[in-house]
Amino acid sequence: MRARIMDTPEDFKNLGINPNKVELWEESRRETSEAGKNEVWYFDATMDDGTKFMAGFRPVDPAKMMVAGDTPNVNIMITTPNGVEKSDFHYFTAEESFTAEEGGCNLKYGTDTAKGDFKSYDIHVEPTNGVGCDLHYEALTDPFRQGTGIVAFGENDELHHTDLAVPKNKVTGTVFL
Fold this sequence. Notes:
1 helix; globular; 6-stranded antiparallel sheet
């Protein structure tokens, strides 16, 4: 399958993206819930003690990406300094979720939340099965995107995946195991 970073002048124009500056609206939901569209708000960190953390918030379950409609989910994985991995997936209905379409990252999937604005983020994943977190991120760098921040797949760019990053942060808080 063909894949490309959407980075032509026409891509920027068609998507309404400023090629010279990452803007706050880009941290909001950019894709629709039509089949083949999805995005993820991905957070990770390595703590001072060596604990590794990752959480992904998605409005569409990757396994259901080819079906229209929202199927929100959150996955979390924590690896302890001695290599023990703990993880969980939380699935929600469209009715018990909210993904902001403007104003920055503002996600509420059941009891799990992520809110931020390129400068700071607060992440909460309820420790439903013992694995969760309450973390605060403070950006140490500006946001980054390659091209428009969208990777297109297929002969006619019919499938999309967003990719926008704040690559360096100070992270504080608690992970639950």
